[in-house]
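pasting for ref. prot 1 ->
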Amino acid sequence: MKKLIAIAFVILVSIPAFSQINFGLKAGVSTTSLSMPTIKTVTSGTTSFTVDALTSAKYGFHGGVFVRLTLFGVYIQPELLFSTRTNSYTVTDVTNQSSPVSYVAKQTFNKLDIPVMLGFKLGPLRLNAGPSGSLLINSPKDIITNPDYKNNYNKMTIGYQAGLGFDLLNFLTFDLRYEGSFKKYQNQIQNLTGTKYNLDDRPNAFLFSVGIMF
C-alpha cells in the first residue's frame, strides 16, 4: 500500500509538466488461465485432500477510470479499476482411498486493480507497459470446507501489464493487454497444526477494454 501511495504522489506532482491531460472511463472483459503444474496434497490428522486447478480459460470483468498524461507522444496512464475473476479447482477427499469423493470448488475474487502504464504513440496506435497492483476486497469461498483447514489470502499483490491500444477520433480508446504476476498468487491452505500449503496459481490473463476520453 505504501508503494501505491508513493506512485500516486509522484503522478500528482508531475501533472503540471504534461502538455495534454485526458480523463476517461473504461470497461472490458478478461480471460484468465491458472498455472498450477502439480496437484497439491493437503493433510490434517487423518483427513487428506488433493487440489488441482482447472486450467480452461475463465472470463472476468473490469471497469473504472483513468487519466492519460501526454508529452511529446509519450504518456503515463494510471488507472483505478474494479475487477472480478473466478478460479476453479477439482478437490478430492482421498481419506478413504477406496472411494474418493471429488467436487469442483469455485472462488470469486473481487479486486481493485491499479495499473500504471507508460507508453508512446505511433499515430493512432499506442504501445504500453507498466506495473499493476491488485488489492483484494472480498473474502473468497474456501477451497476446502472442512474445520481442519482454513484458507489464507494475500491482500495485496504486484504484477504487470503490457500490450497495445488504438485511439479513434481522440474520443474512443481500445486496449488489448497481457497481465502477469511477479509472485505466487493469493491462495494458501493451512491445517490445524499450522502447516501451510501454497497453491502455485499464477493467473495469466488477456484483457480487452473499451473506453471514452474527455
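and prot 2 ->
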Amino acid sequence: MKKPLLITLVILAVLLLIPAVSFIRWAFQEKKPIDVVILDKTVPTLDRLGHRSFIYTLTNARFVRGEKGGSFSASRDYFGFEPLRPVREKQFRKRDFRLTELIDLAENNDALYYTDTYGVFFNDWYQGIKKTRRSRKLYGGLNNNDYLLLVEMKRRDKLVLVEYNTFDYPTAGLEKFKTEELLGLSSKGWMGQYYKSLDTVSQHGAPAWMPALYRKQYSEPWTFTKAGVVLLNENSIIVMEEGKQLTTALPVIRTNGTEAQKFGLPESVPFINSFDIIDPGKNNVISEFVLNTTPEGDSLLAVNDLKAVFPAVTQEPLKQKTWYFSGDFANNDIPFWTARLKNIQKGGKAMLYSDHPDDPKRFFWLYYKPLITSIFTEYQAGTTGK
C-alpha cells in the first residue's frame, strides 16, 4: 500500500473513531430522569428552532423523560403550535393545556419551560405574503390556562423557566398583569433587536415596515444604513445606530464574576436575538443586557425612561426555582446530530462556532447551554438529595 494512501486511511480512521468514542462515553453516562412541560407557540417551520436547542441541552447532559427513560424529542415533547406534514398544505394542530389537565401536569412534572408564547401569524405561515409589523393571529399569546399552570407549578416548588415576550403582544392585558404579579416583575413594554444593517434593502437589514413607523413618529426620513439596535413598544420606535447613539452596535450580556463562576458562564457574551426590557422588582438579577451607548444614546433612552443596562436573567430570591429570561434565548440553530456526543464542544469548537462576535452560535455554546445545564443539574440534585 502506498504511503499517501495509508496516511489518508489512518486520518479517516481517527476521524471516525473520535465521534464513536464520544458517543459511547455519552451513552454510558448516568441517566438523569426528569419530566418537563415545554410550551412553544411560535413554531412556523418543522425545524422547531424555538425549543430545539433546549431539547439538545437536555439530551447532551443525559436528562431523560422520567420513568420512560428515553431522550426528549423536539417534535413530540412540547405543547403549542404543531405544523403538520406535508408543510405545503399549511395544516397545523394546536396542543393546548386543558383546564382538567392542569393539576395532573403540575403533580407529574418536575419543571416547566415557556420558551415562546408569541405565536404564529398569517404572514409567518403563508409564504409570499407581504411582510408587515403585524398580521392576523393564527395562534399565540399566553392564556389563562398557561397562567394557571404556572401557579400550580410554583405552588409545588417546581422548577419554572419563562422566556422573552411572555407579557407583551399578543398576550391579553389580564394575563399579562396576573403573570407579572406572580413572577414579581413587570414589563416596561419595550422590545429590542440588533441588526447587522439598518438599511431595509440589505439582506440582513431592518424590516421594510420600520421606516413608515419612524416617519410617522419623527417626521423625518429613514436614513440609517449602519449596524444598530431598534427598540419598539406599542406605538413608538427608537433607532440607535453604530457611530452615533452606539459605540458598537452589538448588545452584550454581562454576568458578574461570582454568578459567572457558579453557572459556568463568560462574564460577557454578545447577543443578537430579540429581547424585552423589564423591571426585576425584588428578583435576583443574574445577568444584564448592556447597550454600548454614547452620550447621545443615553439621552435618547432617558427621554423614554430607559437605561442602557437592564436585566437579562432574573431569579426568584426565596425558593430560587423560578427564572425569567429577558431574551429569545432558546431560539438557536444547532446541529442536533452532535447532541449525543460527550464533550463535543471541547473537541469540535472550530466546527461548532467561530470567534466572530456576531456569530449566532456563540451565544448557545458559551451561555445558554451551560446556564440551562447548571439550572437543571442543581435543581435535580436538590430534589433527589444527591
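DSSP finds twelve helices and 18 strands in the chain.
The mean pLDDT is 90.
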